[in-house]
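Office hours follow-up: a student asked to see two folded examples consecutively, so here they are.
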Amino acid sequence: MSTTLESIPPFKYPRAYTFPAFFSLQPNSTTRQNQMNQWSDLIQSWCRHHRMFKLSLAEAVASPLFYNSKLHKQLNLADARTVLDWMAKGSEEGGGGKRAEWIDGANKSTAWIWWKRPEEWAGIMVDWVESTGQKNIVLTVYELLEGEATTSQEWHGMDVDVMLRSLNVLVKQGKAQVFGSEGQEGVKFF
């Protein structure tokens, strides 16, 4: 069963999205910290709702994510980049818990949005493997992403790069082995 745009319920914006000040980064450090947390939650929720793993800032600032058409208010590109920079920092660095990661380095135009980090996806996959008796069975990455057995799983249809990063977490933990060439990877869970 594939999801169509018509079957996706509308996204529910948080209350802060209705306040004009939300779209201007606040100078007070306490207020800004709260604002950054709210933007981080909104971005993660938006991406999760739309099953997005990569966010292009150029496209996003023109979308309803960063532009409230009812208020005619928009978070500009520089401020959106500041929010994602904050999301990319760890909590110990005064940031958003590494919920974003720049894909293109210093360019900072496209980012992974980790509404679930690769470590979290890895844990979910291990639980699925154990509950379905898939240990010591070779599966293709394509089967994990698009197969009938995974249609009810949250990772079904995810970006292949996110899947591979998640599987690499399991490889480092000694819980899986990934092999094969690009586009034809297989995985065996232990």
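And the second, which I mentioned at the end of office hours:
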Amino acid sequence: MGRVQGYVTQDVVRAARSVFWEHGFEGAALPVLEVATGLNRSSIYHAFGSKRGLFDAAVASYLDEVVRPRLRPLTLTAVAPHALATYLLGLRAALAEPASFTAVNGCLLLNAAGAPIARDAAVRDAVAAYRAELFAAFAAGVRARFPDEGEGGVERLAQACTALVVSALALTRVDNDSALRGLDGALALVEHGTRAQG
């Protein structure tokens, strides 16, 4: 009879996620991961195959538990006209709180995009898919906010909002004021539409 697993996998992944989020893949030393997860190296390798396998599980957890719940109102069949503004205001509030984990550490995936692990094709694909997911959600929000806007205008506004959000999440660790100003710019676009771009 096999040994009973003495830990909850989701709890382990969440603990590792915080370490990767704060320190990056390369900076997340195995001894630190062992302390955070409560597992020794052999248990981590047995459960996840490798440190990289644990990182992949952390990325999936980040998308499912952090990113997608915030985006959910923008992915419904009927998106409310204020859904994109609500998302942006919520993100701005998180980044404006100096002690918040997101303000201090930015975005797990965008941090990875600027690290050596981004040379890995699977990580590049994950970052690109994340950006595409943001764009699709923001486009739905723009359509709901400006139902008479043509698809060209929707795409321009959604691309601009995506770029400003990505920039804010990348900048917050080193220049929080600029990150907040970027989100203010996105909110202006959502308020005024293409008039804010002209």
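Two things to take away from it. The chain is about 75% helix and 0% strand. The longest helix spans residues 121-145.
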